[in-house]
Amino acid sequence: MRIFLIALAIAVPAVASAQTMQPGQWETTSSITSIKGNVPPNMMAMMKGRQTVTRHCVTAAQIAQGPRDMMKARSDCKFDKFVMSGGHYASQMQCKDMRMVVNGYYTPVSMAATGTMTMTGRMAMTMTTSLKGHRIGACK
Predict the structure, then answer these.
(1) Domain with 77 in it
(2) Total structural domains in the chain?
């Protein structure tokens, strides 16, 4: 679960096209909007609605590297779909034990997306996360 949130919170602002995204310090807020599955009810209650705010520096070199490489957090993951056009973003990534679908929009200084992760195995679950981010200035 945490891998999904960290990967999206850090990487989704970086999906803004290499031609349009501005490098700098970005702040991203993620919130779990729904969670279903083989998870103890008290854990689900703690997770749902919880907001996580992260700040991270996105460099010009990272932008030049391209968003696909920046999004690929695990070596066992591959994209089934990756589309960025006209300020809209859509991807589907399949990993050994999970599938992630992310849809959203971006501008040079902001982004918003909804991501759904479906995990299999002992902790089988489906979790939907809302993400919003914006550039807050130069990297420190």
Answers:
(1) 2-137
(2) 1
